[in-house]
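Example complex used in Figure S2.
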Amino acid sequence: MSEPKASAWAQARFTDAANDMAQAISRAVYQAHEQALAAHISGGLQSNDAYGATLHVAQYEQLAAECKDIPGVKIRKPKDVRCRFDLVVCEHPPVVVYPWRYAKDQAVSRDRARLRPPVSDLRKTLLALNENTISEQLTLEQGARDPEELEAELAEEQAILEQLATLGQVVTVGFASNPAGIFELGWGEVELTDEQTGEVIWRHWEPLPPPGDQTAQGEPRRPVSPAAGDDHDQSVRFDDTAPEDDLGLTLRPRSAEPPISEPERPQEDAGSDNA
Amino acid sequence: MAGGSRRTDAPGQMKLLGVEDAAPAGSNATLTAVAAAFDPARLTQARRLAGLTKTAVSRKLNVSAVAVGQWESGTHPPRPDHVGQLAELLKVPPAFLAAGRPYARLESSAAHFRSLRKTPAQQRARAIAFAEQVWELVYALEKRVQLPPVDLPGFAAGEVSADIRDSDPVRAAQALRRAWGLGVGPIPRMVRLLETHGIIVTLVPFAGSATATVDAFSTSQMPRPIVVLTPDRADDVYRHRFTAAHEVGHLLMHGDSAPGDIIQEKEADLFAAEFLTPGEVVKPELPSRMDLRALEQLGKKWGVSVDSLVYRCREIGTVSDPAYRRAYQRLNQLRKLGLFPPEPIDGYTGEVPVLIHRAFAMAESNGLNITALARELAWPLPRLRLLLGDAEGDSRPQLRLV
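Predicted assembly (677 residues):
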């Protein structure tokens, strides 16, 4: 079986690792499902609580385990946003992979799925990175502005958003599942449109095939090539020319005089009767 | 000196250490001697270093909180058996609790905390006690090795006089560049620059995993100015350098600290921006429109983050306010996530403090022994190792049983 070719969208995000990432993510989600299913069966519950709780943890653990050896991938925990789990991060270009089980049955379609409110700080912060287009609806204040000036400003804002996307993006791994199986699995770009209701828009979606449908696992990994146009390593770096400083440390004789931390200053003349 | 009191070596301590030489650290003779020479301030310091409240100590020792309060206020000294229990609980040798060693005391209000709001009071107290220990170590080393003299305009004996202090942040940064003969180019080694001017900089996990709750802080109210940077923030060399410059701004301009004061924090930020990227030279180098790639290269040349250059772009009006807000928000979100750190400080030797470590190495090569230094300071050995720059706190080879 020939290796499936990653889409242009996937290659733009994961460069040469796109195929490896697709396979690893698919394996991770299916393995997490299997783990959750085992918990469901051994728990013997009428409800899906054991399945859901196990899947919640297993999805992060399996993603980290499956992706960690792909060149260019790091496993990191967010710094100033509360998050229990490590996330999969690709460095060149900077992309973080975030799993979202958007539905527990087939009754809720992906397009209608919402994040459960209140939306966590982590989700708000992560998904804000996918805000790549400015709102088409003008504010009252904008409506009163000179159209040409406004157009130039909006174009500038849009250009900046596109540039900002190169500093960090989120690829959401979306899936719907319950103990009966995985109904849908894919990856794409989710934008949070309403923090109150948890409403989202899928800016992009691509299905991911189940692990068995892909090329044989364990193929040799290819190193990730440097990010396109990544020539800035040849630029001047702030510490290029500086020699290591000699701190001028010298030994002091052990003496009764306590050390002083500042340079000796000449004694000020306090006045004298001998003048 | 506001907030500080300094003591010198006293014969009592020498005598006490003599007792300890003859008797095991926890022996009755030692505990009785420590109880007789008990220093209430040392108990407070040890308790803060352990990150415990008085109530927590009282519960562990099965005494009343009032009793612990009395020990710390000096109204009643603890009994010898309580001294032993305190030492054990607070993980210090009993001799730590005795008077007589040089001690520069620092009040909580005398330090600028970068993120005061996020730093719990208990961790602030712990950080303050750490700064006191840093000075004690530096003083002990300074008795043996001549360190670079303090060269911070207006600083003398733990006070900053009204000189540069009263100027606005931009002028203060320009004045410091002039005073240190830096010209107007990039600063290749920010942390080393501070060390060569006699400022003590540390970068150790002084409060274990809780160190992450303390961003960075500084104080000019000790015999040497101290800047404490924390390893958790050292995964971004540009932020690390900016923080170091920010703290110098506090040292220079805010001798009468008002920790948490938003105006002082903003002033320190303005100082850092001007110190690292002098406006008159950097502004003409900025792209004529927002170009993050160009800013990234410029940031690399000057050793600053893209954020600070975006701010500069707004200052000169090459980006509109809405575009600036977009960029500012996104860059903030990226920093908050911390998933894409630009560059850790590892590859930048000039951004890692070395002064204390090198001073100790020089003293050691001339006969100072780490065990003797630990005993002189009355510190446990792992604590000394930590402050000397060994992140693990104990670098002894480990016996591995197979």
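Chain A touches chain B through 49 residues (CB under 8 Å). The longest strand of chain A covers residues 181-194.
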